[in-house]
UniProtKB/TrEMBL annotation:
The keyword Ribonucleoprotein does not apply. It comes from Goodea atripinnis. Residues 122-141 have a biased composition (Basic and acidic residues). Keywords: Membrane, Nucleus, Transmembrane, Transmembrane helix. Residues 106-120 have a biased composition (Polar residues). This is Uncharacterized protein. It is found in: Nucleus. Residues 106-141 are annotated as: Disordered. Pfam families: LYRIC (PF15686).
């Protein structure tokens, strides 16, 4: 019993050490990512200043890491949502929906074109018959 208790204690200590190591690794990775994002914002700000002469007044080194990371995450989600709306339909029908509709319109347009050409032929014949009747009535009078 004492041996199994000691094994359990050692196992739990090793788990807590592993959890601590994992937590430390996650924090270091988040800080590294935040630092790279700050550098990206700084270089982008320099580009805007050089190309357009506009000073944005941002100081990315003053912002906390959580704000930098959450802003990047929100931006990625918005970009993903806009892409999804453009491809899959969104408000006005997306690229995939338009392609399907266009192919359906082309197929039905061909059928409608055939039907309208047949209707035009029938209407033209009826019009000729009417004109003949009118001219015949005029001659009789």
């Amino acid at each position: 019993m004492v041996l199994s208790t000691r094994i359990c204690v050692r196992f739990l200590r090793s788990l807590s050490n592993m959890a601590g190591d994992l937590w430390r690794f996650a924090l270091e990775t988040a800080e590294m990512l935040a630092t790279r994002l700050r550098e990206l914002v700084s270089s982008g700000q320099g580009f805007v200043r050089a190309q357009f002469g506009v000073e944005l007044g941002l100081k990315p080194e003053l912002y906390p890491s959580w704000l930098v990371l959450s802003t990047a995450a929100v931006g990625l989600l918005l970009l993903l949502g806009a892409s999804w709306a453009a491809v899959c339909g969104g408000a006005g029908g997306g690229l995939l929906v338009r392609r399907k509709l266009a192919s359906q319109v082309n197929q039905s347009g061909d059928e409608a074109g055939k039907a309208s050409s047949n209707n035009k032929g029938v209407k033209a014949e009826e019009q000729k018959k009417r004109n003949k009747k009118k001219t015949g009535d005029k001659v009789r009078k």
